[in-house]
Known about the structure:
By secondary structure, the chain is α+β, with helices and mostly antiparallel strands. It contains three helices and five strands. The protein has helices at about 30-35, 60-65, 70-80, and strands at about 5-10, 15-20, 55-60, 85-90, 105. The model has no long low-confidence stretch (mean pLDDT about 90).
Amino acid sequence: GPQEQLTVNLINHLGKKITVPVREGENMLQLVLKHNLNFLGFGICEGTLTCSTCHLILEKEVFQKLGPISEEELDILDLTCGVTATSRLACQLCMTKAMDKQTLWVPMETDTSGSK
Ligand code: FES
């Protein structure tokens, strides 16, 4: 039913895993920020689709169950450091039942411009 409690496993860039409650439709960027799994610079454009720092990696089975990705998101993913076949931008991704009890990774390799 609509009150059903969903959970998701989040693994941060240091490999720390937490399981957190989440409601259907909740934005994944907000979820990562809420649970302090972000690192400096994560989600820096605050969901305006101009940064690619909110990169998350999904399991293949989950990725395939989600709806189509917008052209705008695909354009940014093209420029995302370490992008994978199952990458999404957290700010464009909202919780669905397909993600219940599944795992999302904050990539370990990130575009830390200036550190290379
Ligand atoms: Fe910048 Fe998602 S927060 S693209």
